Amino acid sequence: MRQFNKFKDTKGFITIWERVIRFRYMITEQAKERCRILAFWERHGTEATEEAFMVSRRTLFRWQKKLKEKNGQLEGLNALSQASNKRRKRNVEENILKKIIELRTLHPRLGKEKIHALLKYEGSVSTVGRIISDLKEKKLLPSGKKFSMHANTGRLVERKIKKTKKKLRRPKGYRVLEVDTVIRFIDGVKRYILTATDTEKHTAFAACYTNHGSNSASDFLKKCVAVLPNCPKAVQTDNGSEFALHFDQACNSLSLERFHTYPRSPKMNAHVERFNRTLDEEFLKYHRALLRDDVVVFNDALVDWLLWYNGERPHHSLSLLSPFQYIFNSLSATECQMWWTN
To answer: What single Pfam family name could you report for this chain, choosing any that match (predicted)?
Structure first.
């Protein structure tokens, strides 16, 4: 009788099972189970495996063959798709297809309900919708592209759909650094004051800029992270253009989570809006000429006022403590020494 080794040219299943534990994130649960069965087969033989796992000898050899084809890689035991190779195709009369194409060519915005009514089709509205989808995939219907006139050349240019990233909204009670912009128009000169407030510690920072670009907002954010003690790890802004390109890049480089408010919803940035009022009533009204004439000197004066605001000015929301005093009171004696300044 001819004898052969059924495990010839196959990597040891016990070794493979040990690899499953190391690389379990790369394969499915079903593949792990198959590998465990093959390891049992190598140890205890065919009869014991058939009795223990109700798996036929033919199936064991089929799994072994798959593993050989993949050169012993565990992914070879992953289950393949069980979808049928021959799928049923939708059969539609030719005159119905021609009529739908004709209607959609003449009236591109016509929906499936109205087409169904015009055709007096025996099938359902959903069936008409699926037929339209099939025709779109085959590119037999107008694409519905939008065109606009180019300002320089006067030619029609296709308007491409911009894919916008989904904006995150801050969960209730989540600590963030709220950032906003205050615009002042003085004697024909525009100035932009960027402001920021910690929603928990109530520390604040502000700086004046001569332009409204995202580069200015990016520079302001970096200063906030450097200046504010224990700065939050998340930022919330409105949907202004200054909080776009470079500001977004700065958030990524500083590993800050980004949140947006809803359009026309300043109440979602209530902390920084209240700080804007305090800034206006206690500082900006008395330094309008300086704000107009010399931004550098204005920012120096603003830093002095911010030191007083954060270090000495009592806050009703903090039981008449300043933000720095509130932070010191919440720290232990050892930690407190880290924050003392000259």
So the answer is: rve_3
For residue 153, pLDDT over 90 is answered with no
Is 178 within 8 Å of 171 (Cβ atoms)?
Answer: no
Please indicate, yes or no, whether the overall pTM of this predicted structure exceeds 0.70.
Answer: no
Average pLDDT of span 263-281: 95
Kindly state the tokens that stand for 121.
């089709």
Type of residue found at 280? D
Instruction: Please name which of 285, 260, 270 lies closest in space to residue 193, comparing C-alpha atoms.
Output: 285
Range(s) for CATH 3.30.420.10 in the chain? 177-336
- What phi and psi values does residue 333 have, to the nearest 5 degrees? -60, -40
Token pair in block for residue 269: 């940035």
Contact (Cβ atoms closer than 8 angstroms) between residue 64 and residue 38: yes
Torsion of CA 92, 94, 95, 101, to 10 degrees: 90
Is pLDDT at 271 greater than 60 in this prediction? Answer: yes
- What confidence tens digit (pLDDT) does each residue in 293-325 have? 999 999 999 999 999 999 999 999 999 999 999
Q: What is the DSSP code string of 46-92?
A: HHHHHHHH---HHHHHHHHHHHHHTTT-GGGGSPPP---SSPPPPP-
Write down the mean pLDDT value for the chain.
86
Q: 3-class SS at 98? A: helix
Torsion of CA 28, 34, 35, 38, to 10 degrees: -170
Q: Which of 157-171, 176-190, 260-274 is predicted with the least confidence, judged by mean pLDDT?
A: 157-171
Beta-strand relationship, 189-198 and 204-209: antiparallel
What's 177-336's CATH class? alpha beta
Q: Is the pLDDT of residue 179 over 90?
A: yes
Residue 181 · residue 242 · CB < 8 Å: yes
Tell me how far apart the alpha carbons of residues 288 and 279 are, in angstroms, rounded to a whole number: 12
